[in-house]
Design a protein that fits this description.
60s Ribosomal Protein L30, Chain: A; 6-stranded mixed beta sheet; 8 helices; globular
């Protein structure tokens, strides 16, 4: 079940709204980095679910995006839009260790933990910030897509530990993306622990592939 952390005394939506400023050159909403720091301190690396969606549902996300003025895609425009987004992501991420896979009209970015996090840690390796900046820049240019950030683990260790670590890592990536101006209404965050491997856990190479954070990018169809 898709869970959402309840923050006692803190409204994530209000915090995110308070951290929005207007770019004087484009008249478009931007992110106030000082305010974003307040968000990070308030949620402490543990935010899950739909970040600013009070109904905690996919329909709620759609409603929020429509309310934010994000237009829906349809027909042949969907494939063309995702084709362009894929080409830009592949160009930006070449040589970074992050894979870009196409699944129908969806894109999946696979970020292996060995280039993103230290062992058993959920704090992003600062060497990976530039890569995430590039991802955020492309996602900001292609705002007619939703962004699911999902953490995964290999089978080593206790199930509960792996599940929590996968969620914390996904949360860390989501918070960083929000700090780079990615609209929080577009984001869903969760972790699956060791339940969705992409390779065998019987080999070291397979385990390395399974320890990952994935970003699922889907066209917004309204």
């Amino acid at each position: 079940m898709r869970g959402k952390l309840i923050l006692v005394g803190v409204s994530v939506a209000a915090l995110l709204g308070a951290c929005t400023t207007t770019d004087p050159y484009s008249s478009m909403p931007g992110r106030n980095n000082t305010g974003t720091g307040v968000i990070a301190g308030a949620i402490g690396g543990a935010v899950l679910g739909y970040l600013t969606n009070t109904s905690n549902s996919e329909q709620g996300r759609k409603n929020a995006l429509i309310g934010a003025g994000i237009g829906a895609l349809g027909g042949a425009a969907v494939g063309q839009y995702m084709d362009r987004q894929q080409r830009e992501l592949e160009a930006e991420l070449s040589g970074t260790g992050v894979g870009v896979a196409r699944q129908g009209d969806n894109l999946v970015l696979r970020m292996p933990s060995d280039v993103t996090f230290a062992t058993a840690q959920s704090t992003i390796d600062n060497r990976f910030y530039a890569t995430l900046d590039d991802v955020a820049a492309v996602l900001n240019r292609y705002d007619q897509s939703t962004v699911d950030i999902i953490g995964h683990a290999d089978s080593d260790g206790a199930d509960d530990f792996n599940l929590n670590l996968s969620r914390q890592r996904a949360s860390s990536v989501a918070q960083y993306m929000v700090s780079r101006n990615l609209l929080a209404d577009r984001i869903y965050v969760d972790g699956k622990g060791e339940s969705a491997p992409v390779a065998s856990n019987g080999t070291a190479d397979g385990k390395a592939q399974n320890r990952r954070v994935e970003i699922l990018i889907r066209p917004f169809r309204g």
